Each structure stands twice: as structure tokens, then as C-alpha cells.
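ok so i was messing around last nite and threw this chain in just to see what happens. nothing serious, just curious
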Amino acid sequence: MTIPDKKIYPRTNDTETVYLKGVITNPNIIVGDYTMYNDFVSDPVKFEKNNVLYHYPVNQDKLIIGKFCSIACGAKFLFTSANHAQKSLSTYPFPIFFEEWNLDKKQVAAAWDNKGDIVIGNDVWIGYEAVILSGVRIGNGAIIGTRAVVTKDVPPYTVVGGIPAKEIKKRYDEDIIRKLLRIGWWNWPFDKIQQYLPHIMNGDIDRSFP
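result:
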């Protein structure tokens, strides 16, 4: 069982929290079940417009977010068009203004360096006003600190923070991380997650999981 694709509000009388899957319309943004976004400043339904920035169709890059992620107010995902081309002698994006400079419209994407997709794993917590840059991949179970600027990949179950974001600690030792990745509880059916939910919530990992 999964949540209905168009279910938006997970809690009664709470319009500040949404299931992102229910508000996404851009085919280049893919969000897993139960991933939620909270915004107490703006309308969380406008996540695509307010939080996914410089994400232009010409680049064909994607934002992929897994299941059961928690995204705090003001988190931003900055895509390729924020990266002005550094191979040029100038950082000015001349190809964007092709009409002014009589350039080939088909070369507009040469104005920036394409760093690729942003891929967020499952059960990732992204803190208040954190910024994730294009090309970054964040592993399952990672935590991104408040106002961190993530410029490179984050391994699974790793806590990072700062500008640029650096590792603060691992959430568990390597044996437990391997076990959690093998179990992949976020892919279980609803009934099984509900059955094991007390163990998930209490951090019981030694003998509680199959």
C-alpha cells in the first residue's frame, strides 16, 4: 500500500506540511512515498517554484528524492543554470542573451556547467534552509544540518553541517549501516512497516528486523 499520488496534507488542519509527491507536476522531479516538506513561511504547495531553483528543461537534469524524507522549511536545491561556465574567460552568461550578441540559440546551455542530477536517498532529513547543489548525491539515512551548503556527495547515515558541509559523525557503526541498507525498510509494504514501527521508532536494530 502506498499513499495516493494526489494526497497533499498528511495531518488534519495542518496546511504547512505536505506530502511532496502530491504537489509535484514537473516530470523531472521525482519524489517517493511519504516524503514530506514543511514550510511555515510560504505555501509548501509551491515547493517546485520556491525551492527547486535554476531547474530549466533545456538541461534535462532531475531532482530525485526517495521515500520517507523530511525536508525542513526553506531548503533549496540549486541546479545547473546557477553554475556559470568557468571555461570561459568571462563568467558573464553571454549565450543566454543570444539575441543581443547574435549567437546561436541552440547553444544557450553553454552559459553554464552542467553538474547533473541531484539524488536524495530514502529516510534523509534535510534541515532548515539547507542548500543542496547540482550533481550532489545524498545517501540513505543521512542528516543535513541547518543552513548547510552541500557541495559534494554525502554517504549513507552520515551527519553533515557547515559551509561547505563536512562530516560531523556517522549515525551508526559500519556493521549497522550495512544491515540497515540491506534491510531497506522504506521499501517494505505498509503493513510490514506498521508491524515493525515500534522497533524503527525505538532504534531497535540488533534482533528486531528480519
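not much to say yet. The mean pLDDT is 92.
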